[in-house]
Amino acid sequence: MSRAFVKDESDAPPPPPLERTVSQAPNRVTPRGARLIEAEIARLEAALAQAPDAAAGALLQRDLRYWTTRRATAQLQQPGPAPTAAGFGLRVTLRRSGREQQVDLVGEDEAEPAQGRVAWTSPLARAIEAAEPGEFIELPGAAGVEEIEIVAVAPIPDEPNS
Q1: Is the Cβ–Cβ distance between 153 and 82 less than 8 Å?
Q2: How many domains does the chain have?
Q3: pLDDT tens string 29-73
Q4: Domain boundary at 27, 42, 76, which?
Q5: Does residue 3 fall inside a structural domain?
């Protein structure tokens, strides 16, 4: 067969980027999380206007679709000023292995475990959900069961510039 009728692979456009997976869990967001979504959409729209090529533009468009979906499905939730139990949008002080630690229970897109922001869908957040100060929770893990004491719960301080 002649090569004249065979398409050269280098002439083919690159395949479109795979879509980002959208969580099936409700999209609960804190006020900070809602601001982060808006900021990311604005950043992507500005970057898309200056995309250097079609491939870069396709990646930016994919990410913009993800964040626009997250904005459309966002469920803004704010706890009351005097919470009595651990829950979404709250800062929980824990005692684990003799050390105190604070974790903020936030939306999936806002989670940054290294910064103490834990997704409300994580095993830790699910284990401490609705626990009150003074309660002990058992968290199963690879090394066995860890006992965690709930020390305090409070609203997450609003950080308007973050």
Answers
A1: no
A2: 2
A3: 999 999 999 999 999 999 999 998 988 999 999 999 999 999 999
A4: 76
A5: no
Residue range of the domain that includes 65: 12-76
CA–CA dist 143, 35 (Å, integer): 38
Find where tokens 């006992």 sit. Answer: 147
Beta carbons of 152 and 93 less than 8 angstroms apart: yes
Burial grade of 18 (CB within 10 A; 0-12, 13-18, 19 or more): exposed
Specify the amino acid at residue 128.
I
Identify which of 157, 162, 159, 138 has the alpha carbon closest to the alpha carbon of residue 149: 138
Three-class secondary structure assignment of 32-91: HHHHHHHHHHHHHHHHHHCCCCHHHHHHHHHHHHHHHHHHHHEEECCCCCCCCCCCCCEE
**Nearest-10 crossing angle of helices 54-73, 31-49:** 160
Are 30 and 7 contacting, i.e. CB atoms less than 8 angstroms apart?
A: no
pTM of the entire predicted model: 0.85
Query: How far is it, in rounded angstroms, from Cα 8 to Cα 111?
Result: 45
Q: DSSP state, 154?
A: E
Segment 148-161 shows an average pLDDT of 87
Question: Is position 56 within any domain?
Answer: yes
